Amino acid sequence: MSYLTIRDLEVRLKDGGRLLRRVSLSVAAGEVRGLVGESGAGKSMIGKAILGILPRSVAVTGGEILLDGVDLQGLAPAERRRRIGATCALIPQDPLTALNPSHRVGPQITDRLVDILGWERKRAEARARELLAEVHIPDPERVMRAYPHELSGGMRQRILIASAFAAEPKLIVADEPTTALDVTVQKQILKLIKEMQERHGTALLFVTHDLGVVSKVCQSLTVLYAGMVVEDTDVRSFFRAPGHAYSRALLAATPKYTDPAASLTPVPEAVIAAVRAEVAATDRGAA
Amino acid sequence: MADLTDGRGAVRRRAGARLWLSAGWLTLLVLVAIFAPLIAPQDPLMQDLMLGRLPPFWEAGSEPGFWLGTDSLGRDVLSRIIYGARIALMVALIAGTVTCLVGATLGLLAGFLRGWVDLVISRLIDIWMAFPPVLFSILLVAVLGPGLHSIILAIVLIDWTRFARVVRAEAMGQGAMDYVASARVAGRGRLGTMLREILPNVLPTIVVLLTLEMGIAVIVEAILSFVNLSISTDAPTWGGMIAEGRTSIHQAWWVLVFPLVALFLTVLSFSQLGEGLKDRFDPVLR
Fold it and tell me: What distance in Å separates the CA atoms of residue B157 and residue B152, rounded to the nearest whole number?
């Protein structure tokens, strides 16, 4: 039984434009699923739909999002909010804007535990210290008293990871958590996310456009194109033999460090045309 | 401005002469306003035509006790400036604060909640700003009748848009940040997110605007006094003094110049205080 199940999710702009086209995917408890696609394919939109933070101009217009068997769309907004807050967390893309510049780091981790989950402050603070140590931050005491601008990007991303795991969520959505970091830090952060995920047994939906990252972190993956699921498979068979022509082209376009000159292969026009035709076909089916 | 480094290696900005000078002048003004009856050498309302148009103390023909001279009715200029500071500061503080509260609240609501709330407030701002402010304020006071309350109300009604516009834009910018999304995911409600996450980040801007607004309030009060729509005709206001001084500028320049200097320094101090405070308290610049 998977922890998160999305069935035929439709997300549309208020003016009717389709952003997600009958997207279905599932993440089992303790599983890491990668969600890949080009910019604008709707990867982040899925994460935002699950967490209930879609932009105002966009709305879920169909399908269901089941969290532990409960359809979130069927809940009253306050109850949905509460349920998401208690069981889900977000590791955001840009650590520079994901911590509130006006508050010290410590309270940003503990306030949510205290205000929303009703923990005692002492316990929350102890938990925050423990977590900061767990994400390998030296001197957690000092960091908790620091303002975000006093810390480096990598440090801030560690703090965000600690914060995401604070309330022992069942599901974490990581929205391109390493994109804004430089390459050396990226590697450490990836390792850390993986390590934390394994230790806590959390289900993780990992949004990224980097197939290299997928191969390191994920067990299964979903490939999106224009808001449509192109392929849904496990990582091993994907890298051995991608099922869809678009996936194959995407994999071929991944830069190879051994032969940088030959590796920048764009996705062929014919493949794009074919996948666009598929998208158009589902649109006709929906209309 | 020199940057200093503290023990932890963090760069710390010095408060700077700007902050100290402006805060110094305003503190002096506040003290003078509070202790006006003790400090003022003369009764600001006492007229004595025998003592009309006395020059300030360093010029020939001045009288001791009338340091900055007298106006055409023989009232002491220094004492009137001192009592005028009371009215100016009262207007600055009350009108500035109320304007700030009204404008910032509406701006925050519009910028954070967006949707129809934003639509209504933004259109209101657009319509409001189409009125010429000075004429609008004169009209308002003329209708409401002169008095401190009318002046304050006029300032609030004219200037709330200044706050609303800027705070709305700031709140919109902050609302798009990831930390707001994180707070929402964690289960913070709309009001909580607005007050705990957004407001602290908009606060430096609000403080700067507030100090600017206090300066503007002093000017508006002076303008209204100038066109004789302030408290009452013989109440000592800076604007009123400037208006009176204007008529006798060739015979007694000091009646015009001294209140003008007081007004100028006060308005300048308010704006500089705002800038100085922003430098000091903005979490990112800090």
Answer: 9
- Residue B71: predicted pLDDT: 86
Residues sharing a CB contact under 8 Å with residue B134, sequence separation 6 or more, in sequence order: B223
The phi and psi torsions of A98 (rounded to 5 degrees) equal -90, -5
Chain A residues touching residue B177 (CB < 8 angstroms) = 97-98
Alpha-carbon gap, residue B161 to B149, rounded angstroms: 20
Rounded to two decimals, the ipTM of the complex is 0.84
Confidence of residue A16 (pLDDT cuts 50, 70, 90): confident
Which domains are present in chain B? 18-281 (1.10.3720.10)
| Residues of chain B contacting A112 with CB distance shorter than 8 Å | 183, 186-188
Domains of chain A by residue range: 2-286
Q: Are B239 and B225 in contact (CB under 8 A)?
A: yes
Q: Which residues of chain B lie closer than 8 angstroms to A80, CB-CB?
A: none
Contact A53 B178 (CB under 8 A): no
Query: Which token pair is B45?
Result: 């309302």
pLDDT tens by residue, A230-250 = 999 999 999 998 888 888 888
Q: Give the number of other CB atoms < 10 A from CB of residue B251.
A: 10
- Its CATH architecture, for the domain A2-286, is 3-Layer(aba) Sandwich (3.40)
pTM above 0.90, yes or no: no
Q: What is the mean pLDDT of residues A162-180?
A: 92
Which tens digits make up the pLDDT trace of A78-135? 899 989 999 999 999 888 889 999 899 999 999 888 988 889 999 999 999 999 999 9
- Helix boundaries (H) for chain B: 16-34, 36-39, 77-113, 115-129, 133-144, 148-175, 178-186, 190-192, 199-226, 238-247, 253-281
The DSSP element (H or E) to which A238 belongs, if any, is helix A235-240
CA dist B85 and B269 (Å) reads 14
**CA-nearest residue of chain A to B181?**
A53
